[in-house]
């Protein structure tokens, strides 16, 4: 059954960062006959968006400069998704907060009324037990610290409403963590619960929340299924015909479960509740 999303069809959707997740999000809106503006960093990649029905723009935003026609990208856009990563892993010196400040000056000159920011459950740090959107983040990595600061900056802005969606580990299609785990000599914390979300649900949830959920709010985007790391990845390896990861003998003491009761109460039904597996372990 095809999902039906509600929005003013005259409004344009903007997806700043048409990477692995953003491209899928943009494509889903195009499939539902929305006018979509999407960005990539290079002109070649931006031009390729046109072939998929997306109005492509080559835009690069650094700490002190914007390259590309960002005002034209924002023209007519009322709902803007920010789906580009901080990039701190690749460039530890990158100031993502400054990048967002560069972007904000342009958003405030536009007619954007709604901004959805895809953050990460990494902002919670090493906290254990049940973690909800009401849990106060304790980020430990530089990426987590900057993401949390950006969340607060966006939520404090006048002129547009904001939703923060903290996504769990992403998988789907050719992207699956088990491929990396199978290469490791040993995988620690085998009894830790997983906190993942399938790409199809990351897209579906972003759209559902933007249409149905209160703004100026924070949501966790994680599948409501939390088998142990060992059970899940062993089953995934079997179904993908990959070598089984080697797990540590000690179970570890990680028991974090990221959840959000708001998602269920708002009527979102997960497309891939078993995270792409044919059989649950």
Account of the 3D structure:
The chain has one domain: NAD(P)-binding Rossmann-like Domain (Rossmann fold). The protein is built from nine helices and 13 strands. It has helices at 20-31, 43-50, 70-74, 96-107, 142-155, 178-181, 199-212, 229-239, 261-265, and strands at residues 12-16, 35-40, 55-58, 60-61, 66-67, 77-82, 114-120, 130-131, 161-167, 169-171, 196-198, 217-221, 257-258. The protein has a seven-stranded parallel β-sheet with strand order 3-2-1-6-7-9-12, with helices on both faces. Strand 4 (60-61) and strand 5 form a beta hairpin. The longest helix is centred in the middle third of the chain and has 14 residues, at 142-155. Mean pLDDT is 93; it is low at 1-9.
Sheet with the most strands, sense and barrel status: 7 strands, parallel
Major sheet strand order: 3-2-1-6-7-9-12
**SS content category:** alpha/beta
Which outline best applies?
globular
């Amino acid at each position: 059954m095809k999902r039906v999303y509600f929005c003013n069809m005259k409004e344009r959707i903007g997806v700043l960062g048409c990477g692995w997740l953003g491209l899928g999000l943009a494509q889903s809106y195009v499939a539902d006959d929305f006018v979509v503006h999407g960005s990539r960093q290079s002109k070649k990649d931006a031009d390729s968006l046109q072939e998929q029905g997306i109005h492509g723009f080559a835009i690069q935003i650094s700490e002190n400069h914007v390259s590309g026609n960002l005002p034209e990208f924002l023209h007519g856009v009322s709902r803007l998704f920010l789906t580009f990563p901080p990039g701190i892993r690749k460039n530890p010196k990158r100031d993502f907060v400054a990048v967002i400040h560069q972007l904000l000056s342009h958003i405030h000159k536009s007619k954007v009324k709604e901004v959805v920011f895809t953050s990460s459950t990494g902002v919670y740090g090493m906290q254990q037990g049940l973690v909800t959107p009401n849990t106060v983040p304790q980020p430990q990595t530089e990426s987590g610290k900057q993401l949390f600061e950006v969340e607060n900056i966006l939520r404090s802005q006048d002129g547009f409403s904001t939703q923060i969606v903290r996504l769990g580990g992403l998988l789907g299609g050719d992207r699956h963590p088990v491929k990396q785990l199978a290469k490791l000599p040993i995988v620690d914390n085998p009894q830790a619960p997983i906190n993942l979300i399938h790409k199809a649900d990351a897209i579906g949830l972003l759209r559902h929340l933007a249409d149905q959920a209160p703004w100026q709010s924070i949501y966790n985007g994680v599948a409501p299924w939390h088998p142990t790391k060992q059970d899940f990845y062993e089953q995934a390896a079997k179904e993908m015909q990959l070598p089984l990861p080697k797990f540590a003998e000690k179970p570890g003491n990680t028991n974090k479960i990221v959840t959000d009761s708001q998602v269920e109460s708002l009527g979102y039904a997960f497309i891939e509740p078993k995270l792409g597996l044919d059989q649950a372990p």
